[in-house]
């Protein structure tokens, strides 16, 4: 079993709601504002990156080689919420992103075992090692955005999301989840693959 975050998104391919898809960019705004409220501290409070708690994890891994379970629970919940919002914004599903868990968008995390399986010094260099992954991730995000525009036109016109476009968009989301698991959430020491597979 992989030590990376695994992403499962059930995509609605047909019988799509054309009206909500047409105005999706406006409908997703309340959810986007809600999740952005978690990253409000990033400029003022060190240790919070995009809403994720990072500094407490780095310090506890360095000093005690322990991953705090309450920080892990918060970071997991925030990433899952972010994925539900992304799936809705990218027109992968018509279900409005719930604040609570949703079986259509699910993330499977590797066993952290309280941090005992993690190297205590790796958090110091993971951000540096992940720079090429972030650069490639930006290219993949542009690719997913282009696919989403094409799929959005198909949903608005025909009520059908092309399956090949859906698979690629989900792969890009999964890539970013693996990257966040490695460089931001620090739940694995296994370097993520550069490929979308």
How would you characterize this protein structure?
With 197 residues, the protein is mainly α. It has one domain. 51% of the residues lie in helices and 6% in strands. The chain is built from eight helices and four strands, in the order βαααββααβααα. The strands form two sheets. It has a two-stranded antiparallel ribbon with strand order 1-4. Helix 7 packs antiparallel against helix 8. Keywords: Membrane, Transmembrane, Transmembrane helix.
Please provide a brief summary of the model.
The chain is built from eight helices and four strands, in the order βαααββααβααα. It has 197 residues and is mainly alpha-helical. A hairpin with a 2-residue loop joins β2 and β3 (52-53).
């Amino acid at each position: 079993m992989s030590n990376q975050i695994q992403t499962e998104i059930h995509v609605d391919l047909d019988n799509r709601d054309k009206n909500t898809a047409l105005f999706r960019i406006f409908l997703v705004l309340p959810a986007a504002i809600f999740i952005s409220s978690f990253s409000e501290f990033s400029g003022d409070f060190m240790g919070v990156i995009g809403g994720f708690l990072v500094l407490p994890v780095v310090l506890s891994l360095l000093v005690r080689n322990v991953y705090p379970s309450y920080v892990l629970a918060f970071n997991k919940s925030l990433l899952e919420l972010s994925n539900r919002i992304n799936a809705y914004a990218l027109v992968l599903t018509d279900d409005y992103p719930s604040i609570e868990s949703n079986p259509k968008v699910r993330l499977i995390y590797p066993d952290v075992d309280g941090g005992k399986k993690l190297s205590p010094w790796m958090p110091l260099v993971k951000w540096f090692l992940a720079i090429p992954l972030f650069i490639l991730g930006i290219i993949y995000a542009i690719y997913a955005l282009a696919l989403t525009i094409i799929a959005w036109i198909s949903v608005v016109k025909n009520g059908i999301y092309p399956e090949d476009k859906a698979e690629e968009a989900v792969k890009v989301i999964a890539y970013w989840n693996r990257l966040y698991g490695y460089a931001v959430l620090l739940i694995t020491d296994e370097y993520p693959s550069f490929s979308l597979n």
